[in-house]
Amino acid sequence: MRLFYRYLLITLCGFFLIAWILPQWWPINYPRMLGPSFKPSIRKDYQIYIEEQKPQVLLLGNSVLDVGLDETQFEQLTNQKPLKVSPMGTASAYWYLVIKNNIVTAGDPPKYLLIFFLDNLLTTPDLGVNGAYLPMIDELAGESETVLLQKAYLNQLNPLEGYLDSHLSIFGERQTIMSRINSKLKYTLPRLFQNCAQPCLDEALDVVFTEKNMLPDVIQKNPINLGRWSGSEWDFNALVEKSFLPDIIQITREWGINLILVREKNSKVMTSQDESLDIRKYFQEMAEYLKKEGVPLLDFAHDPALTMDLFADEMHLTTQGRTVFTRLVAEGFLSLLKEK
Prior knowledge:
The chain is an alpha/beta fold and 340 residues long. Helices cover 52% and strands 7% of the residues. The longest helix has 24 residues, at 2-25.
């Protein structure tokens, strides 16, 4: 027992020593306001693209959209000029900022906005906002982003976590500390012995560990983990008001932009029989919510035209799959225009 108390004392002393040293080592001040502080300047690249290219349809999403839809083919099929905004790894917080600070502020905003999403991305406001994505969020955020701070950051903290995050540097800077440690462990040896710095190693890891290099039978026979698609993260009615979806709907409505949501297909859930009960309930509640709000939903999650052989990995389509998906989206879009 004496050894345990000694260990506990040493650990606590080390903990508080590091907490005292950190503000001297890094340019940080504690106590601090909860959540990140954003620079007042806002990146306006997307607004510039809109004003220069004058698209009629803006396609908003992430890498799944980027590799999965052909703009030229879409324009040929619909006779509507599109513009695709699809940075890799982005999610609803980033899309909200693109809409709020770039799309509606353009001189002539597009008439239609199609947001492409996978699974429950639209009700996970804290996804893609920290780590490597924080600088991307900062580029698009203004100095005062109350909705962003509340929904992407503050809502995720319980009272104790919030207090420690704002008053104790070793807790508040835990992600930065972890990132720096991981960076040293990951990049130092390849840089010293292989002359392969961070961009070189990241590219090599992406190439080596992509699912394209896995045996097809291994990918296709991998059992579906229904636990991944069950639980509180799939309670749409409980999550929607804490998400950016109501804000996106409100902003586009105020600016006269026709919002259309497009549900993409996950190759791990090819048919409705593969879905958990929570997934079915989630999208049933989403459909009811969107119908009430007057927002169309194009759902390709179970489309038989998107077969397993058209997927390069769990989410991304092959070149052939891109052609098929573009045709499906174009046909769905045109059917909505006819209804109007």
